[in-house]
Amino acid sequence: MGTSAEPSSKPSTDNTCHLCGITFRNKDEKEEHIKLEHSEHKQPSGVS
């Protein structure tokens, strides 16, 4: 019980934001977070 890279012991890796490392309860929350916080398609609010 030393390897943290085991996929069996960490099923929530798919719900982790690869940009800031936050783990969410489900994939929908993670994707919503990425849309809001890390969207490359639109500029952040306040930037012209």
Give the integer mean of the pLDDT values: 75
What amount of the residues lies in strands? under 5%
Poorly predicted parts: none
Query: What is the terminal separation in angstroms?
Result: 50 Å
Helix content: 10-25%
Class based on secondary structure composition and strand pairing: mainly alpha
The count of β-strands is 0
Gyration radius from CA atoms, angstroms: 14 Å
C-alpha geometry = globular
Order of SSEs, N→C?
H
- How can the largest sheet be summarized? none
Number of helices: 1
Tell me what the structure shows.
The mean pLDDT is 75. Helix content is 23%, strand content 0%. It is mainly α and 48 residues long. The chain starts with 26 loop residues before the first helix and ends in an 11-residue tail after the last helix. It is globular, with a radius of gyration of 14 Å. The chain is built from one helix and no strands. It has one helix at residues 27-37. It has a domain at 11-38.
Key words describing this protein structure:
48 residues; mainly alpha; C2H2-type domain-containing protein; Znf_C2H2_type
In short:
The chain is mostly helical and 48 residues long. The chain has one helix at 27-37.
Sequence-ordered SSE layout with sheet pairings:
Elements: H1 27-37
